[in-house]
Design goal:
Blueprint (H helix, E strand, L loop, with lengths): L2 H10 L9 H4 L2 H11 L8 H4 L2 H11 L9 H4 L2 H10 L9 H4 L2 H10 L15 H10 L15 H10 L9 H4 L2 H10 L9 H15 L4 H7 L7 E7 L3 H15 L10 E6 L2 E6 L3 H17 L4 E7 L6 H18 L5 E4 L6
Parallel strand pairs: 4-5
Antiparallel strand pairs: 1-3, 1-4, 2-3
Helix pairs in contact: 1-3, 3-5, 7-9, 9-10, 10-11, 13-14, 16-17
Length: 349
């Protein structure tokens, strides 16, 4: 039987490897196929392969947590080699020797490559503030793997939120219900709002909403989170500014229940006749809100032009805003004498 056929059989059933003659069990490709398919610790690897750096690196592609298990001790203790493997997949560190997992200086190097490697370091280091801060600065989600004492540490948690707002979900409840700290966290990254304790969430949201109004547009756009997909809205009108803002806020308040959304609606003044709104809602909601605003302003014999662009989280908020300004210009150009609203393609809604 050819080697190719043997490998195909192993790919269908990893146990087939156990039935092979020894001559096949020493073949590099067959052994890799068995490890990749079976994810097992029991496969015997010839000594020359356990010293083969490329062979060990190949294991990482499919079963990273097993890679160092099959490596010779000299490679397991080779800090530079282990670091190279962690760059490929942090799960490699699961089978690293305890001497490396307990070596603080080395662990700090590893965490700079991938913060989530914290999952596999020695438990004592998971209580070490220096170590945990290094981990969460690389990946905020690494907070999940820290000792519980670190999840109560404001310095550690805030560093995690600076890297990834959603990491607040891993903080201790004492911090999630601490008004001052929760407010600080949410102002740093609005995506942390969803993890604020329900007892203070509404108040935090209200305070943050008020502070958003004083931001300039560039600052606001820079703070939009990587998972946010709000509608960006530009409204241009010859109505008195305070009146127009009041109409916008009253309409939003009347037409949607913001308690259903973690996203904080923003209403910013761009120019005396131009207002920006960012709002998280459904397609029909944003259409209804736009039409209601037009109706209310027309009742006062005032026209308004509105552009609505749905931000895709895969793109840059600044680019979406730029597209929205283009859409507004087109709307004004095509309908100078009467109110009008234009929407982008809502196919991704």
């Amino acid at each position: 039987m050819t080697k190719e056929k043997i490998i195909k059989k192993i790919e269908r059933d990893s146990k087939y490897y156990d039935t092979l003659d020894e001559q096949y069990k020493n073949d590099r490709d067959i052994i890799l196929a068995a490890i990749w398919k079976g994810g097992s610790y029991h496969i015997s690897v010839p000594h020359e392969l356990s010293l083969d750096r490329e062979f060990i690196a190949d294991i990482v592609d499919w079963q990273a947590h097993l890679a160092l298990h099959y490596a010779d001790k000299s490679l397991q203790e080779d800090k530079e080699f282990v670091l190279e493997l962690v760059e490929l997949d942090y799960d490699v560190f699961m089978s690293a020797p305890d001497t490396l997992k307990k070596d603080k200086e080395y662990v700090l190097e590893v965490l700079e490559v991938d913060g989530e490697t914290l999952l596999f370091v020695d438990d004592d280091l998971k209580k070490d503030q220096d170590v945990v801060i290094k981990a969460v600065q690389n990946n905020g989600y690494a907070l999940d793997f820290a000792d519980d004492s670190m999840k109560k540490d404001k310095t550690v948690v805030f560093e995690a939120i600076k890297q990834k707002g959603e990491a607040f979900c891993y903080a201790d409840i004492s911090l999630k219900s601490d008004m001052d700290f929760a407010l600080k966290v949410v102002q740093e990254d609005i995506n942390a709002l969803s993890s604020v304790h329900s007892s203070i969430a509404k108040e935090v949201k209200s305070i943050v909403s008020a502070s958003e109004k004083s931001m300039d547009i560039d600052t606001y756009l820079s703070k939009l989170g990587g998972y946010d997909t709000p509608y960006l809205v530009l409204l241009k009108s010859d109505a008195e500014l305070a009146f127009m803002k009041n109409v916008i806020l009253e309409t939003i308040d009347a037409e949607m229940d913001e308690d259903e959304y973690d996203f904080v609606t923003a209403v910013l003044t761009i120019e005396d006749d131009l207002i920006f709104v960012a709002i998280d809602c459904g397609v029909e909601d944003i259409k209804l809100i736009s039409q209601k605003i037009i109706s209310k302003l027309e009742e006062e014999q005032t026209k308004v032009h509105i552009a609505v662009f749905h931000h895709n989280s895969l793109g840059k908020p600044s680019e979406t805003y730029s597209l929205c300004t283009q859409l507004l210009a087109e709307t004004v150009q095509s309908s100078r004498e009467k109110s009008a609203v234009s929407y982008n393609d809502f196919s991704d809604s």
